[in-house]
Amino acid sequence: MGDKKTKKIVIVESPKKAREIQKFLGKEYSVKATIGHFKDLPEKEMGVDLKTFKPKFVIKSKNHRKMLSEVKKLAENAEVYIATDPDREGYAIGYFMYEELKKKAKDIKRAEFHEITEKHVKDIIKKAPKFEQTNFGLFDAFLGRRVGDRIVGYTLSPIASKEIGGRFSVGRVQSPAVRLIVEREREIQQFKPTPYYVLTAILKKDDTQFVSYYEKQRLEDKELAKKIYEGIKTVRQAVVKDIKKKEVKQSPKPPFTTSSLQQTANSQLRFAPEKTMMLAQDLFENGLITYHRTDSVRISKEALTGIRKFIEKSFGKEYLPSKTRVYRSKNTQADAHEAIRITNFVDLDTQRKLVSEKGLTEDHFKLLKLIYQRTIASQMKDAVYDRTTALFDIGGYVFKTTGSVLKFDGYKKVYNIEDKEETQRLPDLKKGETVEKVDQKLEEKWTKPPGRYTEGSLVRKLEELGIGRPSTYATIIKTIKDRGYVVKEGGSLRPTEAAYHLIDYLNGKYNWVIDYDFTRRMEEFLDAVEEKKKDWKEFVEELYRKSVEGAKNVISKKMKDYALDLAKKHGKDISDIIDDPEKLKEFIDQHKETKPSEKQIAYARSLSEKTGLELPEDVLQDKEKIKRWINKAKKEAMKSYKLSEKQKAVLIKNGKEDLIDKPEKALKWLEMYFRKRRKK
Fold this sequence. Notes:
Largest sheet: 6 strands, antiparallel, barrel
Strand content: 5-15%
Structural class: alpha+beta
Catalytic activity: ATP-independent breakage of single-stranded DNA, followed by passage and rejoining
Domain Topo IA-type catalytic: 135-552
Organism: Persephonella marina (strain DSM 14350 / EX-H1)
Number of domains: 6
Radius of gyration: 34 Å
InterPro entries: Topo_IA, Topo_IA_2, Topo_IA_cen, Topo_IA_cen_sub1, Topo_IA_cen_sub2, Topo_IA_cen_sub3, Topo_IA_core_domain, Topo_IA_DNA-bd_dom
Keywords: DNA-binding, Isomerase, Magnesium, Metal-binding, Topoisomerase
């Protein structure tokens, strides 16, 4: 490129998105991908200065480092458009990029693509504001979340692991989610089913049979139920006491948000939330749907026009309401975004073609079909039913029946998945007339415990409690499955043993971590940070204070068990000091065994023979000394240690042949390898 023309660089997260956008923008632009988050807190350490809360962000990998130096070269004197995703995480990636390039580039702008379509991309590039004029509050909210979560996890996970015994991880948002599942399981375990009775009479007029229920549909009293049953047994007729007919309308649901999409895809398609998000990411990057992380139900004016034209053309005028339907989002902030909707207003066959042209799968099409149905239905007319309710007198008892007839299908022509209207056809009935009673039934039923959460209903619950945000629901659920707190059984989630241990422990010691209300307030605090009304450091400070307060008096399970053993041995009662670390340590120091065990002595003697090292008498009398001597002797023994052929074979098979000349390292690795095998 000549110097006369300023270079134009567009930066997005994913290579696939980069390719799509490159097609739209042509040669004049160079579109580059950051490959997700290219900077993050270090993996092996806290990475946060606990006095100032200043985080230390590092470049995540060699690949990211290579990408960054390429982009920096390209950006020299260029016009840069940072077009990472339009949410907090996307903005943070963009902000890191802005920091890296602001001294090099001629100009940096912020472009937010809500859909990857040619017209939209070109419009947004034209109107892109300078990066300096965007809301840095988004980055501060990201900082608060990332640093706060890191402090909680890094401070409390080791403590929990030590005190419970085992490997446990504590998370600001994952732990409340585990608590929900544990509490539901306990409700189910404690549930006592009670019986109730349902009484029905089968009635008939002309050739139509229909069911009617005793006016109280659930009877708790068995004797009363039997009495009524006997009372109507011999009656052959029912008299119409009252009849009401009315027209009932059913409105379509609003278009999808992240949460409602995850719930519906889970119940209808059995997709886990993280699968739904992966498929949606692909559909978004290929320009088939709008951005998939949103809690808005708004649809843009242009899109509404497109949807309405499509409805009129495909289904006819009678399916189109005279005015567009307007849906309001629960929180006002959400409305900067749109709902999740299709971007091409074409029929399903054409949508299927688009999916296969882009090289996507059947599952992608299933999800797109759901989004297509919900988008179109949300702008169609109500479904209309004629509902009839009739009351009958049967032997002096009142029975009731309802029936509905679908008069106009409306939006259900496209989206008839979730709501079912009872559709029992009733004959034409008039007040005062008599119909035949054919049969009656008395059934004993039992109350059922609440159901376990599915991934979909857990998302709904998290949203209801204000825990997590659209971009995090799927990650929360994936994390608690990966960490082994929850397993999927059938379609539902069951807590593991570890989940009970964790929740009981946190409940006793760090209740705030799993307090739903506190977690919700923290999310609201971050929203306020995003709106520049609060300072992110305040958020982190509170989490740090709460985490550290409890960390002062940590007594590990090992220490407790050891002290209790000693107390038993010496016939002492230590219940009053068991939670006092200072006193407990004193007690252990006074009563601990200083003599080595028989096993230790025998082991030391055999090492002495093997290595020819002298084993002095005072070492055999002192537990600490013998430990140190054994470690020294083991190192000595290692120098002449020969690995067996079998051990060498395992190393070679696993690509670890470089350890064959380092017996000490080799044995460590082998021990770990076999431990993992045993676990499996």
